Each structure stands twice: as structure tokens, then as C-alpha cells.
């Protein structure tokens, strides 16, 4: 049988809280260190201990990082889900299980390969403590796998030493357990399998990190000093990363005091209130939340929009509606983020697709919030936020200065005859603001959610109200020129595909497969809202544009129809919203089916 | 309510404070509240307190929620920035504002609806966090702007203007504040400027959460027989336990109070707070005793006023968080950005 290198999906089925995460993480990291592209996905329950959890690693020499249907190697360590795990293995795939207890007949499949290893039995004489035996099961199957798929052993033992640095007494038993499995595999199994890994040099200087860590780190670099948040899956690690990195990078050397303040608020309403209060008083501030938090923050977001106060909100989306599937991914807050709050309210939204972009957008969002004096919502999701993703390394331009926007200091106020907070002096819809305590007699104004005139005085004058609402629209036009531009490919194709955030992950794979079917598409990866001119040009320049997104109601498509005013028939929804991340197959099948159903030509044509 | 704008020219003989300003420099725009509203008296007391403290007016930050009380920051300190936020959420705005700049004097104005109903959660948590501010509730027991519904501080059995009794237990913000971490808790009456002004001064100089519940009768909806928040009721039923005098550090202290009934508290800036105990056996430093006293008098239908609790060793949120002395909003790139070189080891940790 021909050996297939670096192209398979392996899935670990474990019990939540059984200590499998570190062994599985080491597995993925070992492949990464062998220069092989890997994508990891944690499929976990809303639970601390006891429920089933899966860890999936896609290994792809082509660098396809989206989820792929089918499992080639199943490491089935959870009795509860065993039957369903066996059923999910692709024909010709491998079932790896602990055969201390024999496999029952009805679970056997003739179209897959069974690899039984008596893991429990192997551990019994080695470790007296049953708790240790439980934990070392994970490291033992890792040892078996090193032999089965040919992982460089010194790469993985090096990681064990690093992981338990400071707890040296743990290194020896871990390595022993791993070698136990490895030795068994060499002695009793055919090693390696025809599915195996081989060192590559496909990664350059890439890193493997989750988006939430990147967002927290980027907020440190972007100069956020106040972080207020309320715990909610899957966003919690944004604030935790900020805390970790500020803790080590932002202490005053002389006094040991903190150049930041982090408040775990009593709820999301307070979290966004603290952010707005701090930003009103001139501190860069942000919060992290998920869909339910956006619902709760809506009133305050309307205030910040109308009173024109900077704020940065990270929304790590999860499956809704309501509590939905809190540990599953989706892109279903597009509409609620863009139009959060009552009245005529709309917000600037950014859509990062990689950890590097999370890092960059964290700092960009703080700049944009100050420049535009309005909330900036950054829409990540569980897939990007909580899974380790391959990414370009983090880079900071040391010559970069924070854009604090239009804030007048005391000297500037001295030179002004009459300060008007909401005067459109520059014609871009953005007024000049002042911070409390700046000048003894000039520049003080009253911030309010009620209507006001150009000088911040309360008014119910219809003309003044309309002028203000119109100026906010002018600011919206300015925002179009400042948000990150969409990435557009200008191929020769008549039709296009538009996507954003983690829907980008499987896109190259889908496009490659579609091309094999004679379907060529130009691409547009949206990175910001309001949509820039390039997004409008892309849609107008193609007969049909497939809009790929992970929600039921085609929310991005709604936004495009609403904001750009294109004929809805030209925007074809491609949707997946079952809580896992969208796969290339899903995209390919839906687009291909649309081509067939509408008798669209598969011959790639050049536009005249 | 008056439509006559105040003249901008000062009377030449208005007294000047230590920084050469008169009380007029601490005033705000003309009130749009009802004539006789207790809230206007509170605003006047704030003006007087701030003027007497000789703090430059622009060094205050005024924050409020929604309601009659929350409109009042317009009516004092027009040279300060103010923020009239959303209903019940002033505490979170105050928290953020104070974290951003610890050097400003934060004044939060709220009402009984704003702090005891919709904002009870935020009230409780800002008290726990010990934000350094003067948190003043204009407590009239009613929703004025929506025309007279009961609020959560209204006493059970107290009647509305139309005679309907309140069926529910009241929430006592003073007891709550003492219980959950406020280091300065007082109650006063809008009609008693002599008591209120020194309390506001002391609250502003107090480092930590200083809460003052001011009974402030609503002349339009809650100033009738049967209301326990009316001028007459409060005048008849209040009992002052501890009166306070605030003596700025620049002023010479004259000890003309009877020994044994006066206690001096040194404030962080060197000024002195003098407490005069009027009720026997009242110890404002004993949290448990203070709670017991307030509640037992309340059970008798009395409104205990004065400085009810003072933590002798207060802490504020910046102490708890260990933030730098420089206000966070004044830190720049050099303070905040670790620079590209530091990313080398960060990137390495992800390989």
C-alpha cells in the first residue's frame, strides 16, 4: 500500500477533565515542530468534568487549515462515545483503542483497521496510583502514536521536559509512560502505518496560537489601560491573556505598580459601562464578550454611538440564539453587532481571520475607536479564539504612534474662541473632544445620551437633531475609508465568492476543488464594516457573488443588501451553522449545486 | 423652575476662596426641576462644599444616571465635565472614569430609582470595589419624571399622592453600603444645609467610597401626609447621631467643642474631620454597631442622619489594584507599548 504523508485527520475522543488536553496538545505541537501544517480543533462540552470531548488535528501538506469531513485515525478513549466514534471513521481508516477489554462484536467494522493496545494493562505494573494510571493513559497513547505515524521521538520528549520544567519529578514518569506505548507498538504492531508524518519545511517562522491570546496581547501593544469584562465562554481568555501579558510587560520597574487596571465586573452591562467611562476620561479601554454579552451591552453601545465615546468590544461568537450551544462556533452576531441598540444606531465592525490579524486589529481597533469616537466591535469566534491556529508571527512597528484622535489639550483650547464638542470643523463628521480636567475655564461640556446641539447643549430642536444625525452619517462615510480594506483577488472569473473571519480557513481548499470541477471564482475577504468602496466594486463587478458564512439567516448577506443596495438575487447564500466550523466540502457542494441547479456555465470565462 | 438666567457678573463683595474664586464659579446652569425640589438644595450644598474646599472647578468629574436626580449635574460645576449616562449605570461609568484618572474628584449623583431599583446591582458592586468618589443619592422615594410611581426606597405603608399604600419592603441603601464595603456612609436631609455641606466636603476628601443618602422630598409627588419622604415627616422624625465639621488643613483648628463628644479624624491631605457625637454610645467606627443602630431606629420610624460609619483605615480601588500613581490616561507609548523586541520571546513561546 502506498504511503501517504502529512495528509490526514486524527481525532482524539476523550472524557472532559481526564488530562487529555496536554497530551493532545503535545501531539499537535510535535507535528508543528516537524514543519508540517496542522490545524487543531477542540470540540468540547459546556462542562468541567465528565462529558465527552474531542480534539481533532488536521494534518495537511497543502496547508489546508479548514475542517475536513471524515476521520482517518480515531483515538477512541471514551467508552461513552465509543460506538459513535467508531462509526465516524472514514472507510480505510484506523481505530486505535485500549483493548484491555475486548472490542464487542457489534462495534466491529470490516472496512476499517483496528489497532488495539492494552494501555490499562501496560500501566498496571508500572504505576501503583490509580489516578496516575488514568492520567498516563493519555501520554501512553501518545507514545504509541509516535511509532505508528513516525513522529520524531526527540521532538516529543523535548516537549515533555519543557512542559514540566520546574516539576522535574514529573518528567521521568511521563517519558516512561510514553516509552511504554512506543515500545509496545514497535514490538507488536506494524509500524509505521501507511498514513504517517514526515518532516517538512512548510511553516517558515509561523507560530501556533489561539486568537484570544493574540487579541489580549494586541491590546497590550495597542495601549489599552483599562479592561473590564465578565466571564463568558468563549471570550474569557481575551481578558486572561491581557492580564497575563500586562502582568509581565506593564509593571512600573521602580514601584512594581501596574500601568493598567483590570476589573472583573458584575455583568456585561457594567463591563461596557466601565469601558465607556474610562474612554470618556481618556484611557484606552476594551472588553471581551460573546453574543449574550452583546445583547446586554446594547443600551450602552447606543449611548457610546450617540454621545460619541470610544470603546472596543471583542465579541468571540458562539452558537446562538439565547444560550444556544455555548461551546460551539458560529458567525451569528453579525447583525446584532452591526446594529446593536435601539434607534438609528450602527457600529464599526472588524472581522479578523487569523491570530496575527487578532493581534493587529486589537491595536487598530483602539486607534479607530479614538479616531472615530465610537465603539469598535471586533468579531472573532470560538474557532479562531479558542483553537491554536497557524499564524504569521506577531510584529510591531516601533515607529508606530497611537492615534488618539481629535483630543484638544489646554494649549489648543486657549487658542479657540468658542469650543463646540459636536462642531464638524474638518468636514469629516468628527468633532473635537476634550478630557475632564484639561483646562480651568474652557472645553468642559456635558456628555449625554439625549439630543444636543453642536455646543453639547440639550435640545429638542428638530433641525439640530437632524443636523446631528446627518453628521453621524458623514462620520460613517469617513469610517468606510479607515476600516481595514477587504482582500480582493482579481482573477478572470465572472462570479465571485465573499467571506470573512474563520470562513476564510477552508476557502483555498474549496476553491482548489471547485476549480477541478471547472468553477472559477474571484474572492473578496471582508475585513471591516462599513463596507469600503472595494467591496461594493467587487459585488457590482460580478454576476453572482456567493456569500459564505456560518449562520442560518445569511446575516452578512443581509448587511450587504441593506448597506450597498445590490439586487439580492445576485448574492447567493452559502451557509453552515451546525456549530462545527464550516468545511471546504460544504462550501464546494453548495456552490457546485447552485451552478448545476441554475445551469451556470462551468467553463471559466474571461470577462470582456 | 425659573426661566430667569443668572447674571454672569459677580457681586463685587462675594467672598473669595483660597484660590480666588467665588461660589458663583462653582455653579451650573439654571435648574429645570420643580420649584422647591429638594434636589436643588443638594446641588446648592455641593456648590458650597466645592467652593469651600477651594478645589479648581475643572478638577471634578460629574457622573449620573437617569432621572430627576441625574439631571442635577447640569446645575452645579459648569466648568467640570459631566456625564449623564444611562439608567442605573452611573456606577460603571464612575468606575471607568476613576480608573482612567485617579487625580480627579469624582462626584456621582443618583436617585432612589437609579440606585435602588434598576441600578441596585451596580450600586452594590461599586461599593464593593471601593471607588474613590462621593456617591450622592437624592432620595425622594418616588419616580418623578414618570409622575409619581413608588420607588424601592419607599417605606412600606407610605402612601402615594392618590392615597394608595406601598405594599413592599424598602431597600435601605445606607445599611447596604455599610455592609458591603463603603468606608464613609452618611445620611442627611436636603433641608439641612448645615449638616449636608460638611458631609459633602468630608466625602470628597475621603479616600475611598463615600456614600451619602440624602432624603430629598419630591414636592410634586411625594410631599403629602402619608409619605415618609416629605419635608414635614423627615423634620419630625430625624435623629442626628453624629454631626460632622470639615476643617481644611490650611485653617486653624479651634477646639471649642466639649471634650468627650468631639473626635478628630485626620484626612489624607492633612485636613481634619471633626465628629460630634450627639447620641450616646454611638461609635461611627464600629461597622456592626452602626448597622444595628441604623436599623433599630428605623424600626421605630426614625430617620437617623449624620455620619453613620467611617472606616478609620480606608482603601480605594487603586490601592486594591496596585495601579501606578500617574493617571492611566496620561501614560504614553513609552509607558504602555513593550516594543517589537519583546515579541521575539512571545513568538518563540508559540513555536
Oligomer: heterodimer
Residue-averaged pLDDT of chain A = 95
Task: Assign the CATH class of the largest domain in chain A.
Answer: Alpha Beta
Radius of gyration of chain A: 27 Å
**How many strand elements of chain A?**
25
Give the overall average pLDDT of chain B.
89
What is the assigned CATH homologous superfamily of the largest domain in chain A?
Pyruvate-ferredoxin oxidoreductase, PFOR, domain III
Q: Record the strand order, biggest sheet of chain B.
A: 2-1-3-4-8-7-12-9-11-10
Query: How many β-strand runs of chain B?
Result: 12
> Total helix count of chain A?
19
Q: What is the end-to-end distance of chain A?
A: 49 Å
Name the chain pair with the biggest interface and residue counts per chain. Answer: A-B, 73 and 61 residues
Which structural class should the secondary elements of chain A be placed in? alpha/beta
CATH architecture of the largest domain in chain A: 3-Layer(aba) Sandwich
Provide the CATH topology of chain B: Rossmann fold
Descriptive notes:
- The complex is a heterodimer of chains A (608) and B (351).
- With 608 residues, chain A is of the alpha/beta class.
- Chain A has four domains: 4-196, Pyruvate-ferredoxin Oxidoreductase, domain 3 (3-Layer(aba) Sandwich), CATH 3.40.920.10; 209-391, Thiamin diphosphate (ThDP)-binding fold, Pyr/PP domains (Rossmann fold); 407-482, no CATH class; 487-597, Rossmann fold (3-Layer(aba) Sandwich).
- Chain A has 19 helices and 25 strands.
- Chain A has a seven-stranded mixed sheet with strand order 11-10-12-13-15-14-23, with helices on both faces.
- In chain A, helix 1 (20-33) runs parallel beside helix 4, helix 9 (268-280) packs parallel to helix 10 (291-307) and helix 16 packs across helix 19 (584-597).
- By secondary structure, chain B is of the alpha/beta class.
- Chain B has a single domain (23-326), classed as Rossmann fold (3-Layer(aba) Sandwich), CATH 3.40.50.970.
- Chain B is 29% helix and 20% strand.
- Chain B has twelve helices and twelve strands.
- In chain B, the strands form two sheets. Chain B has a ten-stranded mixed sheet with strand order 2-1-3-4-8-7-12-9-11-10, with helices on both faces.
- In chain B, a hairpin with a 5-residue loop joins strand 10 and strand 11 (272-277).
- The longest helix of chain B is centred in the first third of the chain and has 16 residues, at 38-53.
- Chain B is globular.
- Chain B starts with 37 loop residues before the first helix and ends with a helix.
- In chain B, 53% of the residues are buried.
- At the A-B interface, strand 9, helix 7, strand 11, helix 9 and helix 10 of A face strand 2, helix 3, helix 5, helix 10 and helix 11 of B.
